């Protein structure tokens, strides 16, 4: 079979890698000038490049380490002590272990104990299906109390969901707390960090090399404008540079983007795709000549802050530099995406200097603002009933994206595991032939 994978991000490239590994002929179609998506590095002056967004690997991740080993990237793996903390009313508190939570001074002893109970309850819960039906607010108040919710959880939820989390299910905090535990069931939280020296783009490039070495093709600047549908099965792909025929098509793109390509599909199905909500992400990245603190990540509880956390990583190529990321998630209707870079940097820097008054302008060597409109799918209550299926209603057309990893968080580990599952599903399908002879 000749399979088209639309989208050259981590999901699309991993899917293409596993399909080509199984002996299938694969062509990746990427509309941008480079593959990688969220993992595509930003090119700066002085021949510097940095990952656009912070990515980390947890020591317990299995699929990503297996893929790293298959691609021969073991020498790229770096490990470091990575403490995390919380900025609360201008003070920084370490949150490296359950003990740090239990000694968190802004809370009374009773509230600290209930905060620890919340963490343990999440980690001891194996069945997430009930949590899918409970608002995250209700679950956190029931387990940890209203005081903990208002002081700790509400500001973090407001930052993550741009203030709109009324319908967010408790599965989110369940997944988040379990992910935060580096070793599931152990006492430490974020005690160590694993990352690729040259950033996550190194993984994508290594897969691209393997895909091409097997005789397959990766086309950049190839934008698909329509997936034709005939008699409930796919026909040709219409791109801005020509018409293409494939036996099977896997769209590794955000759900709303697929709706834009199915111009002749059933309108009810198209509408269900187009209405799938996503969080956007605005993430200024600063290259600094010294780390501002010992913390790998700091979460801010101040709802007035324009960014929700500070993530600091070593520069992948230059040991004298560090990269600070200042992410802000945006709701679908939020207009931050249209704000100029200069205004964003000005607002972000005012708040950053309040956290780190010793960070002087001369310490900042480069600054870039990264934006993505579709970064995390938004899941409402009873989300499991609305997850789009991999197999679309049309024979030969499949969808693979991060909305389908629910209730897991859309991490690189979850993406790689899901791409492998989708590859197996496609490989199990019977061979079909193109409908080019019936296409208009």
- Count of DSSP E strands? 20
Radius of gyration: 22 Å
The fourth-level CATH homologous superfamily of the domain at 2-46 and 199-276 and 386-438 is FAD/NAD(P)-binding domain
What is the top-level CATH class of the domain at 2-46 and 199-276 and 386-438? Alpha Beta
Q: Kindly estimate the percentage of residues that lie in beta strands according to DSSP.
A: 15-25%
- How is the biggest beta sheet arranged? 8 strands, mixed
CATH-derived architecture of the domain at 2-46 and 199-276 and 386-438: 3-Layer(bba) Sandwich
Q: Average the pLDDT over all residues and give the rounded result.
A: 90
Question: Which regions have little confidence, pLDDT < 50, spanning 5+ residues?
Answer: 182-190, 436-440
Taking the alpha carbons of the first and last residues, their distance comes to 23 Å
The number of helices is 12
The backbone outline, from C-alpha atoms, is globular
CATH topology of the domain at 2-46 and 199-276 and 386-438: FAD/NAD(P)-binding domain
Secondary-structure content class: alpha/beta
Give the % helix: 25-40%
Question: What oligomerization state is this entry in?
Answer: single chain
Q: In words, what does this structure look like?
A:
Strand 15 and strand 16 (309-314) form a beta hairpin. Strands 6, 7, 14, 15, 16, 17, 18 and 19 form an 8-stranded mixed beta sheet that branches. With 440 residues, the protein is of the alpha/beta class. 31% of the residues lie in helices and 24% in strands. Among the domains are: 2-46 and 199-276 and 386-438, FAD/NAD(P)-binding domain (3-Layer(bba) Sandwich); 97-180, no CATH class. The chain is globular, with a radius of gyration of 22 Å. The longest helix has 16 residues, at 109-124. The two termini are 23 Å apart. The protein has helices at residues 10-21, 63-70, 98-102, 109-124, 136-144, 146-161, 171-180, 201-213, 255-261, 267-274, 341-355, 412-427, and strands spanning 2-6, 25-29, 41-43, 49-51, 77-81, 84-88, 91-94, 192-196, 217-219, 224-230, 233-239, 242-244, 248-251, 278-288, 297-300, 309-314, 322-325, 328-330, 364-377, 397-399. Mean pLDDT is 90; it is low at 182-190 and 436-440. It contains 12 helices and 20 strands.
């Amino acid at each position: 079979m000749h399979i088209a994978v639309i989208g050259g991000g981590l999901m699309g490239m991993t899917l293409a890698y596993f399909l080509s590994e199984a002996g299938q002929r694969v062509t990746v179609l990427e509309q941008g000038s480079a593959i990688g998506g969220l993992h595509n590095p930003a090119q700066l002056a002085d021949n510097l490049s940095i990952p656009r967004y912070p990515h980390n690997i947890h020591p317990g991740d299995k699929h990503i380490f297996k893929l790293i080993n298959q691609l021969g990237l073991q020498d790229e793996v770096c490990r470091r002590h990575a403490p995390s903390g919380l900025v609360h009313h201008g003070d920084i508190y370490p949150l490296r272990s359950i003990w740090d939570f239990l000694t968190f001074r802004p809370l009374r002893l009773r509230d600290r104990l209930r905060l620890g109970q919340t963490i343990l309850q999440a980690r001891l819960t194996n069945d997430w299906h009930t949590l899918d039906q409970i608002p995250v607010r209700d679950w956190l108040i029931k387990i940890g109390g209203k005081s903990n919710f208002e002081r700790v959880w509400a500001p973090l939820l407001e930052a993550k969901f741009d203030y709109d989390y009324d319908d967010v299910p408790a599965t989110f905090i369940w997944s988040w707390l379990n992910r935060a535990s580096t070793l599931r069931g152990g006492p430490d939280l974020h005690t160590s960090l694993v990352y690729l020296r040259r950033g996550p783009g190194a993984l994508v490039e290594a897969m691209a090399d393997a895909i091409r070495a097997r005789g397959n093709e990766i086309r950049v600047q190839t934008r698909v404008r329509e997936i034709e549908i005939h008699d409930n099965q796919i026909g040709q792909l219409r791109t801005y540079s020509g018409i293409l025929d494939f036996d099977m098509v896997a769209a590794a793109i955000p759900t709303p983007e697929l709706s834009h390509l199915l111009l002749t599909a059933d309108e009810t199905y198209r509408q269900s795709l187009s209405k799938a909500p996503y969080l956007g992400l605005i993430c200024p990245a600063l290259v600094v000549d010294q780390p501002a603190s010992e913390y790998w990540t700091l979460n801010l509880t101040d709802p007035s802050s324009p960014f929700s956390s500070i993530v600091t990583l070593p520069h992948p190529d230059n040991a004298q530099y560090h990269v600070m990321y200042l992410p802000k998630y945006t709701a679908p209707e939020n207009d931050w995406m249209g704000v100029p870079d200069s205004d964003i940097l000005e607002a972000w820097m005012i708040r950053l200097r309040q956290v780190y008054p010793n960070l002087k302008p001369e310490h900042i060597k480069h600054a870039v603002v990264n934006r993505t409109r579709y970064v995390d799918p938004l899941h409402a209550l009873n989300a499991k009933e609305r997850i789009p299926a991999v197999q679309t209603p049309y024979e030969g057309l499949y969808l693979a994206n991060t909305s389908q990893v629910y209730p897991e968080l859309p991490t690189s580990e979850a993406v790689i595991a899901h791409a492998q599952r989708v590859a197996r599903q496609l490989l199990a399908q019977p061979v079909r032939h193109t409908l080019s002879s019936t296409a208009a």
